[in-house]
Design brief:
This protein is an alpha/beta fold. The protein contains 15 helices and 21 strands. The structure holds nicotinamide-adenine-dinucleotide (NAD).
Length: about 500
């Protein structure tokens, strides 16, 4: 029998106001129905925000180290249930088990890091310019946080957002992606089991327009954290700008790996296959452009095409699968549109570019790893985020040209350079316009305790992960305490000796 899941609002698992539900199916085999989930609307969001406001009053008055202790227990529970969560995540999202295990591990790492941050939410104490007066800054929670997540890291990304928000003392209204609602459900179950007071977390399932947009525009949601496409992020940004809300945007990417003539080519080959075709190319940090220096271009490309052709497509829950399905049919249709665009713009399709043959692929959204060569900087397949297993290869003469190509797109998430030249490596840190640059590693591989995010149209200046995200989820407040017993006027009484 199909299981029906509910929202978690006002401390209870409850049906949506509409009474309607949507289906969650396995993208590797759409005959496999995982469950039905609430099609919520703005009434559900209103109830969730009202409850979160009550939760906030309790939580803000809970000492931060005690808040951190709850996150430590969340980390323990995620560790205990890692295999089960990974399996269910692959079932609803498609990426192979090795990757979903990594996704859960990132949540575990984020939980334990958050636990330690409960004892480190520091401000500064600095000297006052007056005698017998103290001056200091400290951090306060903000209020209700609206958390809107994408489908591709079903557990890790919600944890990046919610765990620091909670340690800082905020309450969360969480909308998981409608493509991966089951992982969102499991995460909330675990947070409650770990001892989070019920009204501190609200889970509202549903579509972006019906649930995401009302969360963003709700006057009592003080801070919004969004990860998703640049297009959706622009809409979220407009609303938050108009309403003067604090907002973190993490959006699209068009990430390049540069391989120089002096690189370790076998290492680069492993890196590009993992970067381009892991998660079926559905990562914000996916390697979607490969910039090859002319001396190694032909040789490297030949080996790459051979290896890409040998990648095993299939159900991510089956051993030996390298590449799972795309998330849904519309994603596959989008990839197919870009195959046509690439060809009509004059790029050479070297492999892939099609749905695989065979019965085992019949009921899933599979697409073959695809490589385009003779791609020119400026072509649409070189500029636009495709979000599928499509790699565009660009040939360059030297490092200057490679860096120019890397920087010539509107996105700026991650970049990668393979070289043995240490001077060039440090030039890349300085000159590549990205939030993250990897040397001798692919464009993916962020660790939970470092800031994560991009420049240009990938982000709006904030970072997730590491220590910086704690600043996003808290307000700096300054306290002055004058214990002199007299009126001391700053900038005036301490300069009385200065002639007019
Ligand atoms: P998406 O923009 O379609 O959806 C993201 C979330 O926003 C979903 O929960 C969706 O329901 C919600 N949403 C949709 N319309 C909304 C609206 N009008 N108001 C508020 N919320 C709304 O993105 P997706 O397809 O789930 O994810 C893929 C995109 O996410 C890619 O562009 C990828 O690069 C990006 N991404 C970025 C990062 C990063 O850290 N930079 C990480 C992962 C994914």
């Amino acid at each position: 029998m199909t299981k029906t899941f509910q929202n978690f609002i006002a401390g209870q698992w409850s049906a949506p106001e509409s009474g309607a539900y949507f289906e969650n199916r396995n993208p590797a085999d759409t005959r496999d129905l995982i469950g039905t989930f609430p099609l919520s609307n703005s009434h559900d969001v209103d109830a969730a925000v009202a409850s979160a406001k009550r939760g906030f009053e309790i939580w803000r008055n809970t000492p931060a180290p005690a808040r951190g202790d709850v996150l430590r227990r969340v980390g323990d529970l995620l560790t205990q249930r890692k295999e089960e969560i990974a399996d269910l995540m692959t079932r609803e999202m498609g990426k192979p088990l090795t990757e979903t295990r990594g996704d859960v591990q990132e949540g575990i790492d984020t939980a334990y890091y958050a636990a330690t941050m409960g004892r480190q939410l520091s401000g500064r104490t600095v000297p006052s310019e007056m005698s017998n007066k103290w001056a200091m800054s400290f951090r306060r929670p903000i209020g209700v946080a609206g958390i809107i997540a994408p489908f591709n890291f079903p557990l890790a990304i919600p944890t990046w957002k919610m765990f620091p928000a909670l340690v800082c003392g905020n309450a969360c209204v969480f909308k998981p992606s409608e493509d991966v609602p089951h992982t969102g459900h499991t995460l909330v179950e675990i947070m409650l089991e770990a001892g989070l007071p019920p009204e501190v977390i609200q889970l509202v399932h549903g579509l972006g327009a019906d649930v995401g947009a009302p969360i963003v525009s709700h006057p009592d949601v003080a801070v919004v954290s969004f990860t998703g496409s640049t297009q959706t992020g622009s809409m979220v940004g407009e609303t938050c700008g108009r309403m003067h809300k604090r907002l973190s945007l993490e959006m699209g990417g068009k990430n390049a790996m540069i391989v120089m003539d002096d690189a370790d080519l076998d290492l680069a080959l492993d890196g590009v296959l993992w970067g381009a075709f892991g998660t079926t190319g559905q990562r914000c940090t996916a390697t979607s452009r490969l910039i090859l220096q002319k001396g190694i271009h032909d040789n490297f490309l030949g080996k790459l095409v051979e290896r890409a052709r040998g990648m095993a497509l299939g159900d991510g829950r089956k051993k030996g699968t390298d590449v799972g399905p795309l998330i849904h049919e519309s994603s596959r249709a989008k990839v197919e549109r870009y195959i046509d665009i690439g060809q009509s713009d004059g790029a050479d399709l070297l492999c892939g570019g099609r749905r695989p043959d065979g019965n085992k692929f019949e009921h899933g959204f599979f697409f073959e790893p695809t490589i385009f060569a003779r791609v020119e900087a400026g072509m649409r397949i070189e500029q636009e985020e495709i979000f599928g297993p499509v790699l565009s290869v660009i040939r360059v003469s030297d490092a200057d040209e490679a860096f120019r190509v890397n920087n010539g797109v509107k996105y700026g998430l991650s970049s990668s350079l393979y070289t043995r030249d240490v001077n060039l490596a440090f030039r890349a840190f300085n000159e590549l316009d990205n939030g993250i640059t990897y040397i001798n590693a692919p464009t993916i591989g962020a660790e939970a305790h470092l800031p994560f995010g991009g420049v240009k149209q990938t982000g709006n200046g904030h970072r997730e992960g590491g220590w910086e995200v704690y600043e996003f989820y808290s307000e700096t407040k300054v306290g002055y305490c004058d214990f002199s017993g007299v009126l001391q006027r700053a900038q005036i009484d301490n300069y009385l000796g200065t002639p007019d």
